[in-house]
Design brief:
heterotetramer; A: alpha+beta; Butyryl-CoA Dehydrogenase, subunit A, domain 3; six-stranded mixed sheet; two-stranded antiparallel sheet; 11 helices; B: alpha+beta; Butyryl-CoA Dehydrogenase, subunit A, domain 2; 3 domains; four-stranded mixed sheet; four-stranded antiparallel sheet; globular; AcylCo_DH/oxidase_C (chains B, C); oxidoreductase (chains B, C); AcylCoA_DH/oxidase_NM_dom_sf (chains B, C); Acyl-CoA_Oxase/DH_mid-dom_sf (chains B, C)
Chain lengths: 343, 395, 395, 343
């Protein structure tokens, strides 16, 4: 898509979220038992967002990682508590399979979660798929407790299996619910290893986009506050201590945005440098968001040390996202390995 | 009196009065701790360096420490409040008349609860920008405004309050310092939830509350310098107030907690982990060495520049330790709650580190103080120093 | 004219004139490069976007790029100076009369050498604080003062000079902009040795040097805005001016030099090393991605906030790369000199990184610019903005 | 020694260096062929400095690491280009041996250098002492080219051997000359492994003291400049960007000072935590000095980018010292190992 088409795609989503996913909504959904708002989800489905990356044949928009990433920048900015990322990854995992789940995902009628396992596991689970049977537990699976279907994505391919048990976890970032998912049932392979790898890349790019978007928004909020808040007879943003932090954070958040968008492009193009680009986005966006969130609290001062101020919601999201799909040290290591292979 | 004689006298008094605990049995209707503290006060041990007319014994600082040491050996509380009791020191220095006599005695016996009414939503780093107003009425002042970051407001009898009493002079010159009676209509205390979800602090809404004439401390419109004295006490203890892990399940205590945690996580053999754990432990160790050196320099009578660095150092230590804990736990840090104490610790510490890096003056304000007061660098131009407060942009 | 026609015309002209090198054979007594540049100028290709009356062809920006592209394909220099020639652009915009006509033509042909006379020992970050004075005399001005950080002063014919022409107005309003003839008594050029030991720059001592009336650019006392235009050119290229290793023995080029160096040092299997090498490479890669995105945004007509970040990013990259190189070499970095090219590189780069983090505005000034111009944060109070320069503390 | 005695010891040294080792002297000695000024050395000997840690029986002052560290703070502050550190380490290595070299060191009549080798080698040399013979090359040995005697200090003990070849090296920090020293001759053991270990500790503490002292002095110079230099009508030190860097550097330089002094005390006391304290001082002082030197240049701006300004002399000293006796990563690793053993 051209930049103007992307803008036209993103704009109604941003408007919907401004209206239906304001801070008060986020707090309400956070405080709810499931962390999921079915009405909001239907409204997103109404814009086609739930089917963004679902094949057109299954009623989706059939778009790529580039468009997904841009939509998730907006979702991240609003701290959207909804299974959007999981659904997009599921759609990538099932692309071209004609699975009936795809149409239900596009329509927003069903919710999918994705458990990475085997060679694609970052979180210490022990799921094995062997002899058409899945056993073991996948850890920290986003949205699993509200999902109608849980895909198992391993180094060998994509599988569907009925989970034996889904145990919701008490999470630090209550805008993204996680669960441990135990398997002990037949597993049906629905896509190959290439689809699984692509699903992994889409997950990372989507998360990176969320982080970049959240960092941008939080920095804007912080800069606005620094313009308006006066101490010592001056806007605090006129003090170099605050101004220079803001400048440094702009570099972080713009770099994150560049990295996430470039990785999305490379995933769509299947470019040879793709693995490095995805790894770079994974750690650069995670680190940038953590730093922006941390420094934003410092720049606000006391007001951001309160529960009522939204800054800590961003910090929680930032800290959690930085551990969800492998940590930054892990991805820096992968980045260097990918560069070595290129060199 | 020789040091030996003094120590002997204190020990004899303690042997005669201190039973190893506060006197529960003889204190129907009164707080047993207050009963004990009153005894200590009346014996002159509460404030041994103060004049005899003010519950003291006119001792030197060094002799005062002997008194404190004897109490510490016995495990008895209450001695040496001339060094540690913010409230009593402030009242002695700045209150007047009968109120001074009453309140000092009560404060030394812990008979009244206190809180601080300094910060406001619009006056955090810049305390001189307070907008809470105290308007003169018959027999005293009527106070209206809002205060934040108050500890213990719900149980306090008095709040040490700064409020504006003149709006037509530059901001530092129109502030007065009061003991505000808290238990009256017009004072509403609400819990203030912190970033961690806890509520250690309050917001205090003041709507026409009354302060009697003699509850003014220091001169009218001279509150800024009273406040400076009071803040000096606070700063000197700030470095020690940083809290440890919430769970209490930290394994090894103190400096080596990170080492223990890394071992427990099975990651102590990873070179990248080892570098980070070592550096975090080192920062804490260096701060301890600085503190020890500062104390030695002070003991030798030379003033120490190092003392002012502790809060800034601690801020870096706490943020970095939280980061290293998170790194060690990896996805394990996604959790919280009592069933996941390691994650609870890492996340709590990451949030609570701002208590040190923001509370009691942000790191940025602290760097100003170090730059200006320790290194002698010039202040920034102060745009509001000479402007009537009415015309200052604030909030 | 269509794009195709234009390209065809340029190519035809090049085919007729460009022999693959500048015309040595027919240039006795003249600089062969100038001979060629004069031909390009006279054909209208030097400044295709400028008006025909000024050596141009009134082309659009896009068409101008076609001209540049055709020259680039042929390997011929001299086209597109309307975009790149700081001196000629400044002269066209601000010079007047006959001098304008002469100097613009000479500058486009590279017939005169130029240098910048902006910074002074007392006016670095704060260029508006220049104390070099230009005093009015019959037919022009007499200039006295000292300039630093001048490149090419020893061979320059003119220096673009800012000097104070009114001392009784605020500092920005008393500065004028001149083309100072360098080859005269009263102008002394001395090499300025950098931290690296090299001398790429000069100090220029000016003692009563004469500037003719018509060498004033822009209005008298209006030099500050002329300077701003000129500085804008410079900033846009600053990010590209950072230098690489001195030895040229860096192994793999560009982004992966550190990877190659780590392998060569036999340390690529150390996890601690790998993390640091990866992060340093990542910063360079992220800056490249930012630059690419900025260019794409500019091409779509939206202004880009990212462009202003490049210099700050490059400063971090260069300091960090030097640090990683040093870490890789360990004790090997103790050495220098041609026999130890790796050490030479690491040490040179560590020192030369300040060229980027200080030169052309320190990182601190750059953060001010980003904070104020990009993020819209308010400026600091400017104590000297409205004060007659005589009364300003400077130096 | 009590603090007032130490002050009385240090003060004349500081006075001598202010007089005879000003910046112009440092530059003159730097530019000389040997990098050594025999007159200055004699003047130091006149104050007893060359015999500071030499046994009293051999005519020295018989002082410990605590006093040595304090004198080297002053030497580091002045960037003293003299074989003082080497001599002190040699004295520690030979303590109690009655070797005639000791008296010559104390009198300043001879200059000693120390090559760490074997288990105590940090710099990639390959010296071996076996069968009463030393072979191989010790790398980056300070002051070797002007030394009358070179001690070999290994994990097994202290040895004297006539070097086969001393090759002066072109060094980045010309205030401390280094040479490669090749051995191929009989080696006589003059002290045991404990003396060798103590010499190692003394070397590290001495270097740490130099670094702490240099960091203090450079920070003072930088703060002075920030007070006096005006831009935008204000002293640059009134800008938070400069002021806050200065505050952070004060924390670094004071921490370095505390670490160096504590390590010295522990070396003298032979305390059980000594190894950790020495390791801590090694990396904390090296890192602090590098940071102070680097940031000081930035705080000065253009003037410190010139050869004529002394800031780069400190940066050269800082960078070199940080690699001379093992780098900071190495010492952080040793620090943690020492803590593990204590725990």
């Amino acid at each position: 898509m051209q930049e103007n088409e992307i803008a036209a795609l993103v704009e109604p989503v941003a408007r919907l979220l401004a209206d239906r996913c304001a801070e008060a909504d986020v707090r309400r959904i956070m405080a709810s038992e499931t962390g999921h708002d079915a009405d909001l989800w239907r409204a997103l489905a109404g814009l086609g967002v739930t089917g963004l990356t679902v094949d057109e044949a299954a009623g989706g928009l059939g778009l790529g990682a580039v468009e997904l990433e841009r939509v998730l920048e907006v979702a991240g900015a609003a701290l959207l508590p909804a299974p959007l990322l999981s659904g997009a990854v599921a759609a990538a995992a099932l692309a071209g399979t004609g699975e009936p789940l795809l149409a239900a995902l596009a329509a927003g009628e069903r919710v999918a979660a994705v458990a990475f396992a085997g060679a694609l596991d970052w979180s210490g689970g022990d799921v094995r798929v062997a002899g058409a049977r899945a056993t073991g537990t996948a850890r920290f699976v986003p949205d699993a407790a509200v999902a109608d279907a849980i895909l198992l994505v391993t180094g060998d391919g994509v599988f569907l299996s009925e989970p034996a048990r889904v145990v919701p976890l008490p999470v630090f970032d209550r805008t993204r619910r996680l669960a441990d998912v135990a398997f002990d049932a037949p597993a049906r392979q629905v896509a190959d290893a290439a689809a699984a790898a692509r699903a992994r890349d889409v997950a990372l790019v989507a998360l990176a986009g969320e982080q970049a978007g959240a960092a941008q928004r939080l920095l804007e909020m912080t800069v606005d506050y620094a313009r308006e808040r006066h101490q010592f007879g001056r806007a605090i943003g006129s003090f170099q201590a605050v101004k220079h932090m803001a400048a440094d954070l702009l570099l972080e958040s713009e770099s994150a945005t560049s990295a996430a968008r470039d990785a999305a492009r490379q995933v769509d193009e299947g470019a040879p440098g793709g693995e490095a680009a995805v790894a770079l986005a994974a750690f650069a966006c995670a680190d940038a968001f953590v730093r922006v969130a941390a420094d934003s609290i410092q720049m606000h001062g006391g007001i951001a040390f309160t529960w009522e101020h939204p800054a800590h919601l961003y910090l929680r999201r930032a800290r959690s996202g930085a551990q969800l799909y492998g940590d930054s040290d892990w991805w820096r290591e992968r980045y260097l390995s990918a560069l070595e292979e290129q060199a | 009196m020789t040091d030996e004689q003094l120590t002997a006298e204190v020990e004899a008094w303690l042997a005669a009065h201190w039973t190893g605990a506060e006197p529960h049995h003889e204190s129907f209707g009164r707080d047993p701790r207050s009963v004990w503290l009153a005894e200590v006060r009346d014996a002159g041990w509460a404030v041994p360096r103060w004049p005899a007319a003010w519950h003291g014994r006119d001792l030197s600082d060094a002799q005062g420490r002997l008194v404190e040491a004897a109490f510490a050996r016995a495990g008895a509380p209450g001695a040496g409040q001339d060094r540690t009791n913010l409230w009593a020191n402030t009242a002695l220095a700045h209150a007047t008349g009968e109120f001074r006599r009453t309140i000092v005695a009560q404060l030394l016996a812990g008979e009244v609860g206190m809180c601080l009414l300094y910060s406001e939503p619009g006056a955090g780093s810049d305390l001189a920008a307070v907008r809470t107003r105290a308007d003169k009425v018959e027999g005293g002042w009527r106070v209206t405004g809002q205060k934040v970051w108050t500890s213990g407001a719900a149980v306090a009898d008095y709040g040490m309050l700064i409020a504006r009493t003149d709006w037509d002079v530059p901001k530092h010159r129109g502030i007065s310092f009061f003991f505000l009676p808290m238990k009256q209509d017009g004072v509403t205390v609400r819990p203030l939830h912190q970033i961690t979800g806890e509520a250690h602090f309050n917001e205090v809404f003041i709507d026409g509350a009354f302060v009697p004439e003699d509850h003014l401390l220091g001169p009218l419109n001279g509150g800024w310098s009273v406040l400076q004295t009071a803040l000096a006490y606070e700063r000197s203890v700030m470095g020690d107030r940083a809290r440890g892990p919430r769970s209490g399940a930290g394994g090894a205590k103190g400096d080596l907690a990170l080492l223990a945690l890394a071992r427990e996580a099975g990651r102590l053999d990873e070179p990248v982990v080892r570098q980070q754990v070592a550096q975090a432990i080192a920062w804490r160790a260096l701060n301890a060495l600085n503190t020890r050196r500062a104390k030695a320099e002070l003991a030798q009578g030379s003033s120490s520049a190092i003392m002012s660095l502790g809060k800034l150092a601690m801020s870096r230590i706490l943020h970095e330790e939280a980061r290293v804990r998170t790194m060690l736990l990896r996805a394990g840090s996604l959790l919280e709650g009592p069933e996941h104490p390691r994650a609870e610790d890492a996340n709590f510490l990451a949030l609570n580190a701002y208590f040190t890096s923001i509370g009691g003056g942000t790191d940025q304000i602290q760097r100003n103080i170090i730059g200006e007061r320790v290194l002698g660098l010039p202040k920034e131009p102060e745009v509001d120093r000479t402007v009537p407060f009415r015309e200052v942009k604030a909030g």
